[in-house]
Amino acid sequence: MNKISVIGSGTMGAGIAQAAALAGFEVVLYDLSDDLLASAIDQIHKSIDKGVARGKTETTVAKTAKKNIYLTTSLVEAAHVDLVIEAVPEKMNLKREIFAALDEVAHEHTIFSSNTSSLSIGVLASSTHRQDRFLGVHFFNPAHIMKLVELIRGDFTSEETITAVQDTVTQMGKTAVLCKDTPAFIVNRVARPFYGEALRLLGENAAGIETIDKLIKSLGFRMGPFELIDLVGCDVNFAVTQSVYDAYFQEPKYRPHPIQRRMVESERLGRKSGRGFYDYT
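Now predict its structure.
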């Protein structure tokens, strides 16, 4: 595996591209416009420079990583790689459309993967003619720092595909955990009660945002639920919750909270918008 493309240059896509470039891979970063890509590469370069300043990244590695990232608005260019990692918004139809388009122009050996945090890998893979070379590769935010990666096997994913991608994420310095194709996989399914109960406590006025976060952190968690939602993005958190709720046929314990919808509709998305449950302006 030498060349990787990342489809989508948002928070997760930029982080994955950075992690891959720092590990020595050639990276093609795709998005719909030059403006989006310019913003993403600026963010990536600043993050790499911060790693150098903190002594986490060698100067030579940083320079090479920056040179290793190629920007494009051409899906054809993004398809001509060894591994595609899709990191677009958590919308099934959008992802399937992108994979179908990539499948028409990608080389036969190219492996497709999705960074989805909750959607079915089998359903995504069925939009292509390479279901044996398709899997889930779920990074966690911030992707260039967090070590865990969930590898999700689809119904027809081959052992060769799993091995190749596991070796790739290991080269990125990540720890791969193999998962079955169940709604939300492992981490996000476990996280639903963590967020859900915090939102219910807030909605019932049992305690305030800061109090809930402080109490949770007193138990050993590095971040409280509302701090974490702001980091991930309120829109992403709501989309995953809705996806899991639908996947389990409206199982009540996974039901989204009205507060989540209100935060998204009022564009209080967390750190990326400057305001979420906390103010970052």
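Residues 91 and 239 are 8 Å apart (CA to CA).
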